[in-house]
Amino acid sequence: MKTLKAFFSCIILSGLITGSIYAQGTAVIKIDPERKIGVIDSNIYGAFLESMVAYRGIYDPASKFADENGFRTDFIDLMKELLIPVVRWPGGNVVSGYNWKDGIGPKDQRPARAELAWNSIETNHMGTDEYVKFCKLIGAENFVCINAGTGTLDDARHWVEYCNYPKGTYYSDLRRKYGNEQPYNIKYWALGNELDGPWQMGYKNKEDYVKFALEAGKLIRWVDKNAILIASGASNYPGVTGNYDRNDGWIDWNDYVLDRMAGSIDYISVHRYANQALPDRNDQTFSNLMSLGLEIDRKIEITQGLIEKAIEKSGTRRPIYISFDEYSARGNGLVGSLMLAQHLNSFIRHADIVKMANLTMITSLAGSSPDGVYKNTLFYPFYIYSHNAHGTALDIFVKCEKYSNVLFNDIPYLDVAASFNESAKEIVVNVINKHETLAIATDIQLQSGDYTGNAKVNEINGETINSTNTKTKEDVKIVTKDIKFKGNSIRYTFPAHSITQLQIAVK
C-alpha cells in the first residue's frame, strides 16, 4: 500500500496526470491590507548596463535609428515605456579595470583599451557624459560604480568631482569645458563590484576591500556629502567558481564588510544569477528553474540577518538596505519571464530591506533586429510590475500544492506577492503558476477592507514553456480582462506556466 501511494504521489508531482486543478483541492491566498511588510521602493525596477553592452543596441551612431548623440531612438522609446527609475553603470566586471578619464572629452581623442574582463576592445565612445544623457533620455537616475579593483582613491574622488562639483575645480571645470555646465548630481555610488571574486581585476580579500572602501567612501562624501554609498557584497557563492572556500565564504565576507562599515554605508549589494545555484547547470529542467525564487529569498534573508547584527553591534542609527544590483532571467522566452517575475516577487516580499534592484542587462528587456527593436518576453512582466506593483508590500498567506527537488523541499507551485496602493485605490496580487502542465484553481480571500467587486487581470503566458517573441511574431504578451466578484472572495484559476496580475479595486 505504501508503495502504491508513493507511486501515485510521484505521478501527480511530475505532472503526468492532466486536469485543470489539483486533486487535493483548491489553493488559497489570504490577503489583509493591514499586514504590512514595508513600502516598495520603485528603485527595485532598475536595470544594469555594463559599458561594452552599450555598443550592442543602445549607442550606435551608424544605426539608421541613431539620434544626434548616437543613441538608438527605437531602444530609447521602448525603455521609456518601462518606467525604469535607475540604471547602474559601467559595470560589472568591466569597471574593475575601467579608467573613467578615458571616457570623457572629444570622442576622436579617446583611447581604445583592451577590455580584459570580456576580452574585447573598449572604444570609450560611451563614457560618463553619454551615460548621463542616456539616463536622462529614459527618465532614470544615475548609479555609478567606481573602480575598486585597479582604481585608486584619487580616481574615485576625482570622478565624483567631475560629476557633482558645481565649478571652480579642475575636474568640474573640465566637465563644463566639454559642454556640461550643470553638475550631474549623481546620487548613488557603488564602492566597487564583486571584489571577493577571483575573476575580478584587482580581486581583494575582505580586509583589503574594507580598508579601501572605507577610505573611498570617506573621500566621496567629502566631495559630495549627499552621496549614497553601496558596499560590494559577496558574489563568490558555491557553484560560481571552483575557488569557493566554505570556511571563509560569502556569509563571512558580508559579515566582515557590514561589521566594519555599518554607519558608513547605505546599502550592501547582493548579486545572484539564480541558475548558478543548480548543482548541474546542464540539468535546467523547468521544475528546477521554477524553484530558484527560493534561492533568492534565502540570500536576501541571510543578508538581512547580517545587516541587523551589524547595526545592533555598531549602535549606528544609519539604516542599511540591500541593493540587489545584478540578477538575470533566462533569455527571450517564457521561462525567462517566469524567472524574472520570481525575482520581482521576492523583492516585493522583502520590501522592508530590498530597496534597489538592477536587472542584468537593460538590453535583455528588448529584442533587436535590423528593422529595429521589439518587445521580447521579458518586457511584459517587467512592464506590469513597474507600472502597477507599488505602494506597501503585504504579508500574505498562501496554501497550495508543493514539490521537492535536489535543492529544496516543499516548493509551492504558486509564487505570490501582493501590495496595497492607496493612491491608486487597489490591491495588486502577482501570482506565478510554476507548474508546467496544470492550472490551479484558487480562492483569493480578502480579509479586510471595502471592495468594489471589480478587478482587472493582466495575464502573461504562451502556448508552451518554449514560447518566445520575434520582430514578426509575438507568442508571449499581456492579455487583459475585467472580472467581477461578490463580497470579499475571488475564485480564479491560474493557467499552467503563467504570470497573472490582479488589480483589485477598493473603495
What are the main properties of this structure?
507 residues, alpha/beta, Immunoglobulin-like, TIM Barrel, 2 domains, 25% strand
Architecture overview:
The protein has 507 residues and is of the alpha/beta class. The N and C termini lie far apart (54 Å). Residues 1-24 have low confidence and may be disordered. The strands form six sheets. The protein has an eight-stranded parallel barrel with strand order 3-4-7-8-9-10-11-12, surrounded by five helices. Strands 2-15-19-20-25-22-23 form a seven-stranded antiparallel beta sheet, with helices on one face. Helix 4 crosses helix 5 (170-177), helix 6 runs parallel beside helix 7 and helix 9 packs parallel to helix 10. The chain has two domains: 17-37 and 394-506, Golgi alpha-mannosidase II (Immunoglobulin-like); 41-276 and 287-388, Glycosidases (TIM Barrel), CATH 3.20.20.80. It has eleven helices and 25 strands. 27% of the residues lie in helices and 25% in strands. The protein has helices at 2-14, 73-81, 128-138, 153-164, 170-177, 206-223, 250-261, 286-289, 292-314, 334-349, 379-388; strands at 27-31, 36-39, 46-48, 86-89, 113-115, 120-122, 141-145, 188-191, 228-231, 267-271, 321-327, 354-360, 367-369, 372-374, 392-394, 397-399, 402-403, 411-412, 414-421, 426-433, 440-446, 451-461, 477-484, 489-494, 498-506. The chain is globular and about 70 Å long. Strand 8 (188-191), helix 6 (206-223) and strand 9 form a beta-alpha-beta unit.
Question: In a few lines, what is going on in this structure?
Answer:
Helix content is 27%, strand content 25%. With 507 residues, the protein is an alpha/beta fold.
